[in-house]
Each structure stands twice: as C-alpha cells, then as structure tokens.
Input
Amino acid sequence: GADGRYPTHHVTLTPGSSLYGTLGARAYVNSRHHQAIHKVAEALEVTAVAPDGVQESVESHDHEQVVAVQWHPENMWQEHPEMERLFADFLERVEKARK
Output
C-alpha cells in the first residue's frame, strides 16, 4: 500500500554490473510487486537482491541492452533523482547500439 514515489527497502547491487555502475553498491527502491523471479535463465545474471532474498534485477551475459529491474523507477525519478540515472543509462546504451 506504499506510495510508489517513495522507496521502501534497499537492494544490494552486484559489483561489475550495469546497475552497479549506475547506482552504486546499494539502492533504495520502491516495492509494489506481487511476483518475483523464481528461476533465472542461463543467459541472465541476478544483479540486485533485497534483504529478504528477492531477486530484484537481472542483466544479460551477452547483450548490454538487457537490464531489468523489479522495482518501479518510473514512479520515483521526480522525488529520487538517482532513479533518473537508470533512464539516462538506458538512453546512452541505445545511442551506443545505434552507432
């Protein structure tokens, strides 16, 4: 029932991951999901985990364009500018792929 604009828990990010490069070692995120990743595909790596063990993000081993998060940065970026960096990073990756 938390307002989606505000974070509710931290996630720990994997060193060397795209998200680690964008957000650092830890991020404070919102949580409104009722589903979570159960089994991760071989082509993906878990790159953020919540304290309760929920896998909060995955990234592709083979394609830097694939970065997925379980939280909702689109609801947070105006109140928490660090979430805007996720979108800036995405646009940089798109621009790089276009060249």
Remarks:
- Strands lie at 9-13, 26-29, 44-49, 55-60, 67-69.
- The CA atoms of residues 92 and 98 lie 10 Å apart.
